[in-house]
Specification:
Chain A has 9 helices and no strands. Chain A is an all-alpha fold and about 190 residues long. In chain A, about 40% of the residues are buried. Chain B has 3 domains: about 1-60, no CATH class; about 75-110 and about 275-314; about 115-270, no CATH class. In chain B, the strands form 3 sheets. In chain B, strands 4-3-2-1-11 form a 5-stranded antiparallel beta sheet. The chains are: A mainly alpha (about 190), B alpha+beta (about 325).
């Protein structure tokens, strides 16, 4: 069954079809939430809220990219979560432990490097504004097209370009400061 | 001239750097691409800027993909016990609270007290236990030698009570309510003209009246100021056939005469709403219990809604 059939069935109330869509897109949504929030538990909560909201609002999906639609809902869930966190801060983001993937085929040394790099990148992302961070995550981590990013963020292509340019530049400045880029270049050589 | 060249180059650098992101993603039109590439071929700084941005994006690409520790599938909502009962509970709670408010309002305003008793008989009610039945006799002045004394008199006699306190409301034609007196069980009632609870005038000039039960309109007085055998007096007061109530002045001139049989009617003097108290307490208790049950049902439903989504670990 392709996405269109599953979407149509979901809109008719078929929960199994919807959960098949969840299975296809949950990893992507979770990764966006994780990169936005920097915390596994918060990311899981936001992702669950997003899919629950998607199920409740399936009738409002009018076609187009389902992936972009799911990511738009995920972005909203992340924004809500950040607002709640702002109102009732629990733990500073910087002090949150980074939870590396549990399954790895890398050597312990590579794994440690990637883990350290991941922590730095995550911290670099938190220096961006919400909009810039979302644009960079969707484009450069999730690999969405400009059109999909614009759809997911509910903005124009020009705005996507602008947010991406500023976000990348600011992130580049952070990476240079943390000497991550030189490390990256040496790694490539 | 050199400064102008430098300014122009700086502007070109700034313009190019704004487009580097789009250039990397091949989102520029051919003209913008050509212009950018032309500048990049001559500007080392902008080339380094482009390389650093490419390195930044490459670093982001290398980020490991995270694997969620569980599924985010949505599971059907399980029927929650009590969910259907919630609207009924709300309705019941609201109803009981409304009844409680009504009961409190009734208690405060004495709205159910009969109007007839609420005003002119209020002093009567205080003379005896509430809630008893009374006979009320009404009559006009028997003799009207002095038209200014024309008045109606209401005599309220406990019905069937062992406590035969008698009270009289003297309502003058001018609308002034004169107070009543009551007799003790063994006394002949005495009527004292007064306004409300305050006696009119001093003790020297207050006229005293004897309320005399009699078997006829003008004769067979059972008593004047003298004590009357209690049994006979009580029978008269209960309105037996041919019983009259005569009100005499202190010099035994008759002022008022009433046929008890013709004029009696039953009035129930309202109690002090004693029945409301248990009702109020009962309603308050019921409202508290219902509110508690409703709150518990609401919380349970809220929790169920939150856990409606699957929390099962993969």
């Amino acid at each position: 069954m392709d996405d269109i059939e599953l979407i149509r069935a979901s809109q008719n109330g078929d929960l199994d079809s919807f959960n098949e869509l969840v299975r296809r897109y949950q990893k992507m949504a979770y990764n966006v939430a994780f990169r936005m929030l920097g915390d596994t538990q918060a990311a899981e909560d936001a992702t669950q809220e997003a899919f629950f909201s998607a199920w409740k609002n399936m009738c409002r999906f009018r076609g187009g990219s389902f992936k972009a639609w799911v990511l738009q809902i995920t972005a909203n869930a992340c924004r809500d979560h950040l607002r709640r966190l702002k109102r009732r801060p629990v733990v500073p983001l910087e002090s949150l432990p980074y939870d590396p993937p549990s399954v790895s085929v890398e050597s312990p040394e590579d794994y440690a490097i990637r883990r350290e790099m991941g922590e730095h990148v995550q911290r670099g992302l938190t220096t961006l504004s919400y909009e810039q961070r979302m644009a960079v995550i969707l484009r450069d981590i999730q690999g969405l097209s400009y059109e999909e990013v614009a759809e997911a963020m509910g903005c124009s292509l020009g705005t996507v370009k602008s947010r991406l340019n500023r976000g990348r530049t600011q992130l580049r400045d952070y990476f240079v400061k943390m000497e991550l880029i030189s490390t990256e270049l040496r790694h490539n050589k | 001239m050199w400064q102008a060249f430098r300014r122009s180059k700086k502007n070109e650098c700034s313009r190019t750097r704004e487009m580097l992101s789009g250039y990397m993603d091949q989102r520029l039109n051919p003209e913008e691409v050509a212009r950018s590439e032309e500048h990049l071929s001559t500007c080392q700084g902008c080339r380094e800027e482009l390389e650093s941005l490419r390195a930044t994006v490459a670093l982001l690409h290398r980020l490991p993909e995270e694997t969620p520790s569980r599924s985010f599938a949505v599971v059907p909502a399980r029927p929650v016990p009590g969910r259907r009962a919630l609207p009924a509970l709300r309705f019941a709670t609201a109803g009981v609270v409304l009844l409680l408010v009504l009961a409190l309002a009734v208690d405060q305003t004495n709205i159910v007290e009969r109007k007839e008793n609420a005003g002119s008989y209020s002093s009567i009610a205080s003379l005896s236990e509430g809630g008893e039945a009374y006979w009320v006799v009404q009559g006009e002045l028997n003799t009207s030698e002095d038209p200014s004394l024309k008045a109606s008199v209401k005599l309220i006699v406990p019905d069937g009570s062992d406590n035969v306190d008698t009270a009289v409301n003297f309502l003058a034609a001018d609308g002034v309510v004169y107070g009543a007196i009551a007799s003790g069980p063994d006394e002949v009632p005495q009527l004292v003209l007064s306004e409300g609870e305050e006696e009119i005038g001093s003790s020297e000039n207050v006229e005293k009246f004897a309320v005399v039960a009699a078997s006829s309109k003008t004769e067979d007085r059972f008593a004047t100021n003298d004590a009357t055998p209690r049994s006979e007096f009580d029978d008269i007061m209960k309105g037996q056939a041919g019983s009259y109530l005569n009100i005499l002045s202190s010099d035994n001139n008759m002022l008022y005469s009433f046929n008890l049989e013709d004029s009696r009617r039953e009035v129930v003097v309202a109690q002090d709403n004693n029945w409301l108290r248990p009702l109020e307490y009962g309603l308050a208790g019921l409202a508290a219990v219902l509110a508690g049950v409703t709150a518990a049902a609401w919380l349970r439903q809220r929790r169920a809604r939150v856990t409606e989504v699957s929390r099962n670990k993969n």
